[in-house]
Design a protein that fits this description.
The protein has 299 residues and is α+β, with helices and mostly antiparallel strands. The protein has two domains: 35-102 and 214-298, Beta Barrel (Cathepsin D, subunit A, domain 1); 108-143 and 171-204, NK-Lysin, CATH 1.10.225. The chain contains ten helices and 18 strands. It has helices at 20-23, 90-99, 105-126, 131-137, 149-158, 161-167, 171-188, 193-205, 240-243, 276-279; strands spanning 11-15, 28-31, 39-47, 56-58, 61-63, 66-67, 75-79, 86-88, 103-104, 214-216, 227-231, 234-238, 244-247, 254-257, 259-261, 271-274, 282-287, 292-298. A five-stranded antiparallel sheet has the order 2-1-17-18-3, with no helix packed on it. Strands 4-7-16-8-15 form a five-stranded mixed sheet. β5 and β6 (66-67) form a beta hairpin. α5 packs antiparallel against α6 (161-167). The longest helix has 22 residues, at 105-126. The two termini are 27 Å apart. Keywords: Aspartyl protease, Disulfide bond, Glycoprotein, Hydrolase, Protease, Signal, Vacuole, Zymogen. Residues 105-145, 169-210 form the Saposin B-type domain. Belongs to the peptidase A1 family. Residues 1-296 form the Peptidase A1 domain.
Length: 299
């Protein structure tokens, strides 16, 4: 477009509309300029330090006004419309998730199984039901003769990860299968029922989440801190309602942390990816002519 003289200004800008339902209009990308009605005040610009990803330098990350320390000496960052969440080094994301009370999505599903079906699963095992049929009997797995605890466990050990994931499509079913294995193990050691259920619950806490997604309590948004990113010497804050994603409505609503862990080793990293969670609240300009990236409050 620049070479053909189709645009006067070699920039492109993003406005991501987070309230499309109310206005019936989605976001927009403008080639050759920016729309003044979609941002407030001036843009804060930082130079591109690495071409290709439009990488720039970012300063400290603050949680509730307190430094996390990790990026006080500077971190690399990219603004990426193709990333839904906001990704950063595990050390900081864990700190953030701890402060906002986020637990791994898998952990939550696992705990739901223990609280709602734990006793039932235990009773079936004590009644000497075939372990691989327990989860289909409580209605959490559709048992097709090939899918059961042993099939799932074996695939994780023997097969490529892709295949094991194929076996474990339904998280509630997977969580049930794991609970059965853990309970069998404890029953073999003659543990009491209360101890077994407590132990399985503890194991739930230790489960890492696939893709690092973490759930939070929708009711606690009011007590969560602002998370601030220092760019060009200015602090860009994200409020809880901006960094928590709500999925579903009413009683079925789930709230997911917009922060996900991703460790990119040096020399490329550590790298933050400011995805749509950041680009929603902040109108973003990619200035190709001056090789800089700019952010302003979206409107």
């Amino acid at each position: 477009m620049v070479e053909q003289g189709l645009i006067s200004d070699p920039v492109f800008s993003f406005w991501l509309n987070r309230h499309a339902d109310d206005e019936g209009e989605g976001g927009e990308i403008i080639f050759g300029g920016m729309d003044p009605k979609h941002y407030v005040g001036e843009h804060t610009y930082v130079p591109v330090t690495q071409k290709g990803y439009w990488q720039f330098d970012m300063g400290d990350v603050l949680v509730g006004g307190k430094s996390t320390g990790f990026c006080a000496g500077g971190c690399a960052a990219i603004a990426d419309s193709g990333t839904s969440l906001l990704a950063g080094p595990t050390a900081i994301i864990t700190e953030i998730n701890e402060k906002i009370g986020a637990a791994g999505v898998v952990s939550q599903e696992c705990k739901t199984i223990v609280s709602q079906y734990g006793q039932q699963i235990l009773d079936l095992l004590l009644a000497e039901t075939q372990p691989k049929k327990v989860c289909s009997q409580v209605g959490l797995c559709t048992f097709d003769g090939t899918r059961g605890v042993s099939a799932g466990i074996r695939s994780v050990v023997d097969d490529e990860p892709v295949k094991s994931n194929g076996l474990r499509t339904d998280p509630m079913c997977s969580a049930c299968e794991m609970a059965v294995v853990w309970m069998q193990n404890q029953l073999a050691q003659n543990k009491t029922q209360d101890l077994i259920l407590d132990y399985v619950n503890q194991l739930c806490n230790r489960l890492p989440s696939p893709m690092g997604e973490s759930a939070v309590d929708c009711a606690s948004l009011g007590s969560m801190p602002d998370i601030e990113f220092t760019i060009g010497g200015k602090k860009f804050a994200l409020k809880p309602e901006e960094y928590i994603l709500k999925v579903g409505e009413g009683a079925a609503a789930q709230c997911i942390s917009g922060f996900t862990a991703m460790d990119i080793p040096p020399p490329r990293g550590p790298l933050w990816i400011l995805g749509d969670v950041f680009m929603g609240p902040y109108h973003t300009v990619f200035d190709y002519g001056k090789l800089r990236v700019g952010f302003a409050k979206a409107a």
